[in-house]
Specification:
Helix content: over 70%
Number of domains: 1
Radius of gyration: 22 Å
Distance between the termini: 34 Å
Order of helices and strands: HHHHHHHHHHHHHHHH
Strand content: under 5%
Number of strands: 0
Amino acid sequence: MAPLTPATPKARPGFFELELLDNRYPALHGLRVVAILTVIQFHVTWIFGFEQGLTLDPTFSARSLTVFFGMDLFFMLSGFLIGSILLRSLETSGTQQLRRFYLRRIFRTFPSYYLVLTVLVVAFPLTATQLTNLKWEYVYGTNFVDLNRDHIVMFWGWSLALEEQFYLTVPALFWVLHRLTSDRARIGLLVALWLAALAIRLGLYVHGRPWDDLSLYGALYFRTWTRFDTLIAGILLAFVHQRWREPLTAWLTTPSHRAMLAVPAFGLTWLLLEPWTFGPDTVQLVHVFAWGSITTAMYFAYLVLLLHGEGAISRALSHPLFQRIATLGYGVYLVHIPLCDHLIVPAAHWLDGRHVPMWVVWPAALASLSALSLGVAYLLHVFVEKPSLRLREWLAA
């Protein structure tokens, strides 16, 4: 028998190469890219139409803003990936390896966030309220304060704050799940927590009536206590995937079984895109259900189909290009609003002043903002994220 040859260590990428995200679930990279684009297009429409007074077609604007659920996909993917990591850790070592868990999270997310926040604080004048609230942004408490532009520096940091709060609490949840005696009890607890967020939203909605649309949005959409169901749904998906991966894959080889998931998911997607289906008086109530419950039920079905199948959509989303773009996704999210404010908006006003139609300006703005954000995100990745990951490796060792 030939002697065993030691495995060749994986070569580190060069200085200007990307430190690519883990490729355990390649199709999820494509989904991340779709989510990034939906978030950018939402913000372009919101900033143009509601903050800058640029005249967009009302029907187009309304349609664009109904595609709000890219952020919920990010939350659910975070829940799924973090849940999968902790489940594997418990299975292989019997512990959650919390030191390693928090080292991975801190050195992946903190450096770029604090750099971008600090640059914005230093580079631009702040209001008195922004200065007062700045401490909340530095401790990832952004979604505990008013997200008015004049009150907070990185208002889009609310989602990052929600995720960091999730990272703090999820080990306690897994400690409880690990001590439950049956899978039925674990699923029951996760479903109960998922439903609890809807109950809180409904309670706040009923107690605070009548609402105007913007006030309801501010009260329910950004807060930890009303939005944690998106992350819980991701953990539930991780648990189902880990426990029943092979039976689910076998069951979904039958087209009618796939349709049992796909058809309801299509229906939920249609409801998200048509929130006025049941009349104008019910739109706010539809939003109460949509901001977490409908989105996660829809994504749960789609992700089960994606994770347990190898069809054309899965193959397309698994293209290597998406892994590269998704690796820069965090940086894109951090910088796209400042780039929009200080580069894209002035350019859009200049074009508007020369009577260039908005049906030309808007897609040009989306394409330009996406490209610029990717470029700046690449610089963040090379000069901030990669050195942080190297430091993490050293500390973990």
